[in-house]
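Renewal narrative, Specific Aim 1. Our central claim is that a sequence can be written position by position from structural information alone. The example that follows is taken directly from our test logs and has not been curated for this report. It begins with the structure tokens describing the chain, in the order in which they were read.
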């Protein structure tokens, strides 16, 4: 895939701007990763020939120590549609995922630095947003989509994203789900 192109919601404007990778490694992967491959596109027993990037919500985390001291982390991720726009407005959230997605996928990744599996379990809990770069395949064991190889993972704390503001996807028009937070109350005449 070539240079960045707008996501499903529209153009970045105002306090919104293109998604910014968190590292040089992620920036290089973002330049080539396909954002238009869906979980439903993954064929039985075959890996996708191209690198993909999917966003979602971590639903389960397992960490296993290895002899190298770099634990292997397994994540179950609920994939969500993402417009690849970051918002730098007044609200604390920076990313607005759609409540819609194509299902759940699994990924495994060996951490690039030495930490204990216990440290991973203590700091990375479900509900974090995750951006995963890898090559998906359909597992022949249970029919689940998994990453045959994972190149990089970015975890984004739950406080930095929402999924109750916009609803969008590749086959539907974007719509507002209303203002986040409590519903507005009418003013009383006095």
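The sequence written for that structure reads:
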């Amino acid at each position: 895939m070539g240079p960045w192109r707008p996501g499903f919601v529209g153009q970045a404007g105002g306090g919104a701007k293109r998604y910014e990778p968190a590292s040089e490694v992620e920036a290089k992967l973002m330049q080539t990763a396909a954002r238009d491959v869906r979980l439903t596109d993954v064929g039985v027993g075959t890996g996708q020939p191209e690198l993909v990037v999917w966003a979602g919500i971590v639903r389960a985390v397992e960490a296993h120590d290895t002899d190298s001291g770099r634990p292997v982390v397994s994540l179950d991720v609920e994939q969500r549609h993402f417009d690849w726009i970051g918002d730098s407005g007044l609200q604390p959230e920076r990313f607005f995922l759609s409540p819609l997605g194509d299902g759940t996928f699994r990924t495994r990744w060996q951490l690039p630095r030495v930490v204990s599996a216990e440290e991973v379990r203590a700091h990375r809990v479900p509900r974090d947003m995750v951006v995963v770069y890898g090559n998906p395949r359909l597992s022949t064991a249970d029919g689940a989509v998994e990453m045959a190889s994972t190149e990089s993972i970015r975890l984004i704390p739950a406080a930095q994203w929402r999924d109750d503001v916009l609803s969008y996807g590749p086959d539907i028009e974007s719509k507002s789900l209303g203002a986040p937070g409590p519903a507005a109350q009418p003013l009383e005449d006095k």
